[in-house]
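Budget justification aside, the reviewers requested a transparent look at the raw inputs and outputs of the sequence design task funded under Objective 1. We therefore reproduce one unedited record. The lines immediately below are the structure tokens for a 734-residue chain.
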């Protein structure tokens, strides 16, 4: 899987279908990126480094050393020496100088995958992956840099990360430490990214790459609604089924930057890492800095293949805990049902009705603590408000349990309201620039999690609530982004560490939580889906996808999210209409079928919705139980995209053994005088026979066709009457 050829000085990393090749050149041991792409049999490709061409290498042509730096495809480019493309690494020494250059020192090939200290990362044992550690140095600074690469066996993924060690006598400052880079000598790519806003997260954007730098980034202290820590460079002809893709996804939940730079020679440098804005990390002699992990996928088989590689990796090598491969309880959340206006009586009336319909868990959302009756106070005061929760929390949980339901609760542990007992006692516990008024957002400040006493205090408050009753689910929310970056607990030359330290503290808190309460189902959330990233998935098997629960808006959000993340991770609920985000009215059936492509749950007042909607809930829950194993574990294929065709959406899930499949078709806008629409199925075994059942369409007979026919000739979807109609087709081997 990973080999080193001493003679050629070449590393070769292989996955099932891809090869990644690194070469060491010249007397100064420059580390060059030779190749990443379709699997190669041989290593005789070092000519791709072009060192046979002018300006050659410095030992042959030192007079043009600068030109060499500016052309050479570096594995990990550093700045300030003559490579004028954007670097991955910058350091400022104690004497105030910038500039560094790395040369190879040694390497190690390790079976399995070492952990990254303090950070979430993918994992795999000795049979599942192999890791290459390349140690390089800048002897003038007194610094070692370890480049880590892991190649997986069961998915075409290579992960990368970087560790910097101060081996000198003096401190220095890291002002940039990206985690991965790909220098490629071609430029005719499109760049694909996921962009949006609150309630419009992760819409797919594809545009042609041009000269200069094109980037997506976040400076909000979280991965964000607006941009996503993902980019893919794809061949101009790449489709769902065909074509080359180089993709990167960051296992990190804070400020990031993902970019592609097309340079003067029509080369492209693709890179990803922690955003440099406000980043400055001091490393004392002997200290080290571990940068987060980047997941890279290469495929020549289009987006379906890229998606399946990411899904497989995250399902097997990132998500943990007892719910990793398990069906989740069908929950009902009271947020859209009641907002802040609830008490024990109201919650129990919802639970009583819900339990009769087959719903399995009640989740009490924001508003149960301190004196919180609106979003303007009490964050930080994690004590039950017994005026609302009469009889106390344990009593409520016990009553819900007596109905045969589990109980879940909402927290927003990272925040503090100016109007809270916590703030009155510790005004210096909020992030703030001394002497400057704080900037409120949703009338709240962000806690200074760089301080251990703050983390410990909040953790203890959260944990004591969880210890006080039989609580089996936590929704961990974060409703504002970071600003006013200042900590009373850090020295002046460490204020540039706050953003990253904050993320590390969130990880540490969630690590403690999942260790102390291993049975918990944790669902991360951030004002909808602003922190939906692989970093958070390491701690919670599901993340609330968006505050927009409208089934039609969700098509685009879920399509973008599922481009990278397994359906089992996407928090999706059936809510009431007119929808609270867009005012749209859609059929209850469609709301259920769209939520089925995620975790599936309800977010409505079941005591007040129309009877005909309520009557559908038991059969929707039956549908969830019937199909969830397939939805959660199967391979996902995109058949049509509403965001592209503006009329209909269609996706398919196929079980790993290809014996079962589920096709979802949503007709967004009907057309007059339009006939049945033909769709071509995917992923089925050509040699198997399948029974095709239109589960919710009357007058269509069950039929049997071969996988060959279904994946070549396809099937017809009869034109549904009306907008927002959905069709669910179940396919089983006969
Ligand atoms: C934002 C979340 O996305 C909502 O579901 C809800 O929990 C609110 N926060 C509560 O403040």
């Amino acid at each position: 899987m990973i080999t080193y050829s001493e003679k050629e000085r070449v590393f070769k990393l292989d996955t099932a279908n891809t090869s990644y090749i690194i070469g060491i050149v010249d007397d100064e041991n420059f580390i060059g990126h030779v190749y990443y792409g379709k699997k190669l049999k041989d290593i005789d490709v070092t000519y791709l480094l072009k060192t046979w061409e002018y300006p050659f290498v410095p030992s042959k042509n030192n007079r043009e050393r600068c030109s060499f730096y500016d052309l050479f495809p570096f594995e990990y480019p550093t700045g300030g020496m003559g490579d004028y493309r954007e670097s991955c690494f910058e350091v400022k020494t104690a004497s105030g100088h910038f500039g560094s250059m790395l040369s190879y020192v040694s390497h190690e090939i390790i079976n399995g995958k070492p952990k990254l200290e303090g950070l979430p990362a993918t994992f795999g044992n000795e049979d599942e992956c192999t890791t290459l550690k390349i140690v390089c140095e800048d002897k003038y600074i007194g610094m070692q840099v370890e480049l880590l690469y892991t190649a997986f066996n069961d998915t075409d993924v290579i992960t990368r990360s970087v560790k910097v060690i101060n081996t000198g006598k003096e401190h220095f400052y890291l002002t940039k430490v990206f985690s991965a880079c790909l220098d490629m000598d071609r430029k005719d790519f499109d760049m694909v990214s996921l962009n949006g806003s609150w309630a419009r997260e992760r819409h797919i954007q594809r545009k042609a790459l041009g000269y200069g730098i094109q980037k997506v980034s976040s400076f909000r202290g979280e991965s964000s609604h607006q941009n996503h820590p993902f980019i893919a460079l794809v061949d101009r002809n790449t489709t769902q089924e065909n074509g080359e893709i180089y993709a990167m996804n960051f296992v990190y939940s804070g400020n990031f930057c993902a970019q592609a730079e097309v340079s003067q020679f029509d080369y492209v440098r693709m890179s990803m890492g922690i955003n440099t804005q406000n980043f400055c990390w001091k490393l004392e002699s002997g200290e080290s800095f571990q940068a987060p992990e980047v997941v890279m996928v290469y495929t020549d088989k289009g987006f379906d293949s890229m998606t399946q590689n990411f899904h497989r990796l995250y399902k097997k090598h990132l998500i943990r805990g007892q719910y990793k491969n398990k069906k989740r309880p069908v929950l009902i959340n009271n947020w859209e049902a009641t907002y802040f206006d609830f008490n024990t009586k109201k919650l129990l009336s919802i639970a009583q009705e819900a339990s009769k319909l087959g719903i399995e868990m009640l989740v009490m959302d924001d508003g149960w603590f301190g004196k919180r009756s609106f979003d303007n106070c009490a964050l930080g005061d994690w004590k039950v408000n017994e005026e609302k929760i009469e009889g106390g929390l344990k009593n409520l949980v016990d009553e819900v349990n007596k109905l045969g339901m589990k109980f879940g609760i909402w927290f927003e542990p990272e925040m503090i309201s100016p109007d809270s007992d916590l703030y009155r006692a510790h005004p210096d516990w909020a992030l703030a620039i001394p002497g400057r008024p704080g900037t409120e957002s949703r009338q709240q400040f962000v806690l200074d999690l760089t301080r251990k006493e703050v983390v410990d205090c909040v953790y203890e408050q959260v944990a004591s609530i969880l210890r006080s009753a039989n609580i089996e689910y936590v929704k961990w929310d974060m409703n504002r982004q970071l600003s006013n970056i200042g900590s009373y607990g850090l020295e002046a030359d460490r204020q540039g560490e706050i953003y990253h330290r904050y993320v590390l503290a969130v990880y540490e808190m969630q690590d403690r939580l999942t260790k102390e309460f291993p049975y918990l189902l944790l669902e991360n959330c951030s004002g909808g889906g602003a922190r939906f990233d692989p970093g958070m998935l390491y701690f919670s098997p599901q993340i609330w996808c968006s505050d927009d629960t409208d089934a039609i808006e969700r098509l685009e959000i879920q399509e973008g999210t599922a481009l990278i993340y397994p359906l089992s991770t996407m928090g999706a609920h059936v809510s009431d209409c007119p929808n609270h985000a867009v005012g749209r009215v859609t059929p209850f059936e469609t709301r259920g079928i769209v939520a089925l492509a995620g975790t599936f749950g309800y977010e409505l007042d079941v005591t007040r919705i129309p009877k005909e909607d309520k009557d559908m809930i038991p059969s929707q829950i039956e549908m969830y139980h019937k199909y969830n194993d397939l939805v959660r574990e199967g391979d996902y294929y995109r058949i049509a995209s509403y965001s592209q065709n503006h009329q209909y959406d269609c996706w398919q899930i196929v079980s790993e053994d290809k014996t079962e499949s589920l096709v979802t078709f949503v007709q967004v806008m009907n057309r007059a005088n339009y006939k049945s629409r033909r769709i071509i199925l995917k992923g089925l075994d050509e040699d198997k026979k399948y029974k095709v059942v239109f589960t919710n369409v009357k007058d269509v007979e069950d039929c049997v066709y071969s996988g060959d026919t279904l994946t070549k000739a396809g099937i017809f979807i009869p034109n549904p009457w009306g907008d927002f109609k959905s069709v669910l087709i179940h396919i089983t081997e006969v």
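The chain has three domains: 2-317, 331-416+451-479+514-628, 639-733. The domain at 331-416+451-479+514-628 is CATH 3.20.20.70 (TIM Barrel). Computational costs for records of this kind are itemized in the attached budget.
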